[in-house]
Amino acid sequence: MRVLGVDPGLTRCGVGVVEGVAGRPLTMRGVGVVRTPADAELGHRLVAIEQGIERWLDEYRPEFVAVERVFSQHNVRTVMGTAQASAVAMLCASRRGIPVALHTPSEVKAAVTGSGRADKAQVGAMVTRLLRLDAPPKPADAADALALAICHIWRAPAQNRLQRAVALHTSKSATAPKGRIA
To answer: Is the pLDDT of residue 12 over 80?
Structure first.
C-alpha cells in the first residue's frame, strides 16, 4: 500500500509518501513541504498548494491519501487556513479517484508513539525509527505527514474490516423478514 500523508497548512503543507503493509517494515518514498508566501493572496496560496499536491500525486501515484483532520483551536484564522489547505488536498485526491482518509492528531500520535499526547519531538523520533531514517525529517510538518501515512497503513486494514462488517450487518437487517408484533 502506498500512502501520501498530508499535514495541511497554508504556509507549510507537509507531504510524505510511505509504502508498506501493517506488520512489515515500512519504506519512505518521499518527504517534503509545499510552501506558500505568507503575504500572498489567499487564492494564489491555495493554487500553489494544489499545484504542489498534484506534483506529488503525479510523481508517487499513491493508492490512498491520508489527511490530518482539522480540529478546533482558539485561533480561528489558523483553523480556517488549515481547513482550506486540507480541502485542497482532498479535492486533488478525489478528482483522481484516490480514496481519502482523515485522521485526528491524537489518533496519529497514538498510532506512531503509543500515546495520543506525544509531542512533536516524540513523533519525529518514532517516524525516524520506524522508517529507518538517519535523522528526523525537517520541518516538523514533513515528519507529521509521514506519521499520517504510517497511521493510515497501520489502521486501514482494521477500519476496512469494520466497514465491511457494518455494511454486511446493514444489508442483512434490510433483507431480513420483519417479525410480527403481538
So the answer is: yes
